[in-house]
Amino acid sequence: MDLIEPAEYYDQANGGQIPVFRPTMEQFKDFKSFMEAIDPYGRHSGIVKVIPPREWKDKLPDTKHRLERIRVRNPIIQHIMGSRGMYTQTNVEKRRPYTIAQWYKLCEQSEHQPPNIGCDRTTRPIVTPNRKRDKVGNNNNEVEQQKQRQKQEQQKPPSANTRSKSAAAAAAAAAATTATISPSKNKRQILSDEIALAQSDTAVPLQQDLQCSNPEKYTVDYCKELERNYWRNLTFTQPMYGADMAGTLFDNSVRAWNVNSLDNMLNRLDVSVPGVNEPYLYFGMWKATFAWHVEDMDLYSINYLHFGAPKQWYAIPTTHTKKFESVMQNIFPQEYKECPEFLRHKTFIVSPKLLANHSIPVHRCVQHEGEFMITFPFGYHAGYNLGLNCAESVNFALDSWIEIGKRAKACSCISDSVMIDVSVFDKNNNKEEEEQEKENDNNNNNNNSDKDENITTSTTHSPSKSSVKKQQQQKRSSMTTHTIQTEQTVSKRPSPTDDDIVDTTSKPKKQKTNT
Questions:
Q1: Could you tell me which CATH number the domain at 64-398 has?
Q2: Which of 98, 282, 300, 336 is catalytic?
Q3: Which of 83, 247, 348, 509 is spaced 20 to 30 Å from 90 by Cα?
Q4: Does residue 304 carry a catalytic annotation?
Q5: pTM of the predicted protein model
Q6: Which of 393, 405, 417, 423 is catalytic?
Q7: Burial per residue of 388-399, b for 16 or more beta-carbon CB atoms within 10 angstroms, e otherwise
Q8: Sequence spans of domains, the chain
Q9: CA–CA separation, 212 and 391 (whole Å)
């Protein structure tokens, strides 16, 4: 497939540089070929958006019956501490499950609702409820935020050396406070009943419509207003995030772009690794955040937003990867000293404004329901959710990733760090080449058998090129292993080479926005 150019760039009128692709069904049906055709763009920008064709979306099966049996198990409470554009995030696990109906109810609480910026107070909520909202919900939220803002201003901001400790202490204090609260008997009984229901495998009927009821509301300008509110109030309330939940909302009837069964080389692994070659589900709410990071083993990733409010994404162009890492190391020197791969911890948040002050461009893109976001090797990205939603994500790899994977490093500080023995792909490639050569040899032998058998030659036979190649491949294959393991040694992540990064001088030329 030839190079596919973007239909437009997100917020192109204001200098946006995240490519947006609107493929035809013919282009879209072959995932691997399509990804190879847009790879030069993504390897420059770090992320791209793909809006699937209407005929693909129209054939997607209803996910309601699956959602009725899914549980948001042990979501995390995100405690974000810091100031002046520099923050650390500590995740505290909430040790209880939620049905999707219960998660919906939680997201409807005033403290977990986005502000109604520049909108009539009668504007419908993000999803269509089956009950009345609290009459004073949003007003109480604004008053509470103002009180917390005043309290925050009276306190001295934590220093760079104490941010992580402060976040951990605050999280521990919050957990301790939660444990000592003694709710009334009725409330305890209700909570106990809810937990018992969520722990069961019983299907819980969904009365709510989880699709975004007013997508036209989320214009570029409106999302920018929400963005300003997000950074002003980042530390004031603690959102919950149903993140890293193994599962899928796709079924086998979806052939093309099924996140649960993408055509890519990670399918050759004999081991299932959740989040890497098996998808994760993410149930978000307003302000639920994912910190700056790249993917494990510098892989690609794909994220599909099944339903709900949009996701705000930030991306660093890969031409600035080295500089971004250097700036983050200077902002968080102690963390870098303790672990050279500290950015893989996914706990460090720096505002676009602060990065811009260090001459690092930060590009923005908003993902709406029914849209894909693709991240690329060395493409640092971060973001947050604009309300109740559900996304599905998994890693994948193109053939060009093999050399990148050979140089990738992992963090040894965290127990779920992933390290892939890339030699397994060389072994598989060699096996495929040998099978192809064997087939070619058989075809040649069949053709030669038609020749006159009475004609002979008396030459001295030497090993064929194919047999020498086979011997070399067999020797190399015998030295490989077939494992996925956790990295045990700490080593500095190698910087991407010039071959890995698409230079700005060779950036694909922009297309005019389609009208």
A1: 2.60.120.650
A2: 282
A3: 247
A4: no
A5: 0.74
A6: 393
A7: bbbbbbbbbbbe
A8: 64-398
A9: 13
